[in-house]
């Protein structure tokens, strides 16, 4: 066994530098000065007897070994965090810090309705929220930057566990002037692919909408212009096309002050599944189960589950 081992602080500096690609920014994320971070990394290199980072005036470049060690260091830091999580979970559940990711097509519609209940049920919980697209949230989860994520499934998020909260039905939204007497439901075949507006790439709702319609040609024909659901609603309200909206957004009032009409999509799988997701094997799994139960209760009370 080696007489001297790297410290967690040194590994934290290494991982921060790899993620930021800049000594100054890495130092800021670690809340130390740039000279302190640089000295810590030199001590790590001296301890390991090898160069990990090539330093120039403009570029920070990791050696091949440095990149491999940074990857291992990230896992070590995550395991160290889970040691503390394990002790906390064995004591008082859902107390202390918890970092939750939420995707943009859920955050503004669901959080205002569930956060009051979470605060009331778990007053010692310090919840830190981070809004990210689905792919970025899953990456942050596996890097250890997040403890859990509120996602819409199906989505390939890696080696995770999930708890279904509720189904979120999809609706077809179109300008109010297009139909005096709108039908009770709209089949995917009735959607004009040249008029369909969807979110840009990176938002899983686009894939859920296309999968629900089960029309492969929509992927190439649809005008994927929207950066948010609010933008899509305004585009529809101005007669630029039709779109697909989740029920939770409609219940939250996204169509307020517009003439847009929303009708349920009549398909075999017309809903996305809202779920709480965490890393498989996390020592806080029981806490996530408790949080999920609270979220299910809040959704039921608020009538969010279809």
From TrEMBL:
According to the UniProt record, one GO cellular component term is: protein-DNA complex
| A molecular-function term among this protein's GO annotations | DNA binding
Q: Key word rRNA-binding present in the record?
A: no
Pfam annotation, one family = HTH_1
**Listed CDD domains:** PBP2_OxyR
Cross-referenced PROSITE patterns, in alphabetical order? HTH_LYSR
Report the Gene3D superfamilies cross-referenced here: Periplasmic binding protein-like II (3.40.190.10), Winged helix-like DNA-binding domain superfamily/Winged helix DNA-binding domain (1.10.10.10)
Where the record annotates domain HTH lysR-type, the positions are 6-63
Family named by the database record: Belongs to the LysR transcriptional regulatory family.
**Protein name as annotated:** LysR family hydrogen peroxide-inducible transcriptional activator
